[in-house]
């Protein structure tokens, strides 16, 4: 049974709230408010304030809340133009035992980086769309600090993979399982990202062209993005397009996976691949499947970075001979996990073998859309798994 409220970050955030403020950012409508209210249920006297609510806003500006409050949740607070100085004052004069959590859309992260007045007073978490592990009910990970990469433990194939692939990882369309809800939600989210988040936080003269870029991007997912080619379609310079792509990444519309080139001869160094936070925008089945794998691996990397401060990075590998492997996870600067995503299994995987040997990667996988797969090729160390089982090992 799917639990709409389960979140892997719950335990880590709860622990951090005893010592520092916790900021939770991420894409619009990913479930930040629901997470904050779920955490509030673990306190004796929580209070929730949303800047968009007029009554809440007046109470905030006057700093009016019960003296018994042990958790303050401020939602969309970054819309207040003096929020940093205000929250700093609240934190520095708080009562003993009073915890503070701040949540917001992508703009929270953009504004957070604009100065260091809050340095040392908070921890920042990125909340991702739902994953297979979360939907399977494994919401908490009470592990000690990882001195080495985690052991990958594959559970039985998950029945939650297909719903994720079809409806995406955002709560509203995922749990409604309705085409009507999905289409309306996609339209509303697109408009809010481009006509509210980007318009309000960025100095963009050609917003209509940035919107067009957002409409074209789902057809360019899973391949190295050529800004020169895209520039011809949008009648803009490659430099301008690169800045627009950075803009879309900052506002959680897309995310970037760069090429890995250390310790490799003739490796591609410039052209990154881009994927979407909402993979339901992608009509091509193969590209959508690859996007789901990318999203789970990125969530894994962000989890270990946000919770433990571990350097876990996601790349792809490609050389000038056009040999390519879809994903490489690097743990503390050491190549650790290579993944090739396929609709159906292939017997020969020369690129995966070549790069695995060159980089001495211990974990090598072919992950397939086709179900019921789990076997090892002893000649090259590549394990073939169906995605509904492979993704159970992650967060």
Features:
single chain; 395 residues; alpha/beta; Rossmann fold; 2 domains; 6-stranded mixed beta sheet; 5-stranded parallel beta sheet; 15 helices; 13 strands; 38% helix; globular
Furnish the topology, listing elements before pairings.
Layout: H1 10-16, E1 21-25, H2 32-40, E2 46-50, H3 54-62, E3 71-75, H4 83-92, E4 99-103, H5 106-112, E5 122-126, H6 132-135, H7 161-167, H8 171-176, H9 179-201, H10 207-216, H11 227-234, H12 238-250, E6 254-257, E7 273-276, H13 285-308, E8 312-318, E9 324-331, E10 334-342, H14 350-359, E11 363-368, E12 374-377, E13 382-386, H15 387-390
Parallel strand pairs: 1-4, 1-5, 2-3, 3-4, 10-11, 11-13
Antiparallel strand pairs: 6-7, 8-9, 9-10, 12-13
Mind explaining what this structure looks like?
It is a single chain. The chain is α/β, with parallel strands linked by helices and 395 residues long. It has 2 domains: 10-127, 3-Layer(aba) Sandwich (Rossmann fold), CATH 3.40.50; 161-393, no CATH class. It is 38% helix and 18% strand. It is built from 15 helices and 13 strands. It has helices spanning 10-16, 32-40, 54-62, 83-92, 106-112, 132-135, 161-167, 171-176, 179-201, 207-216, 227-234, 238-250, 285-308, 350-359, 387-390, and strands at residues 21-25, 46-50, 71-75, 99-103, 122-126, 254-257, 273-276, 312-318, 324-331, 334-342, 363-368, 374-377, 382-386. Strands 8-9-10-11-13-12 form a 6-stranded mixed sheet, sandwiched between helices. It has a 5-stranded parallel sheet with strand order 2-3-4-1-5, sandwiched between helices. Strands 6-7 form a two-stranded antiparallel ribbon. The model has no long low-confidence stretch (mean pLDDT 91).
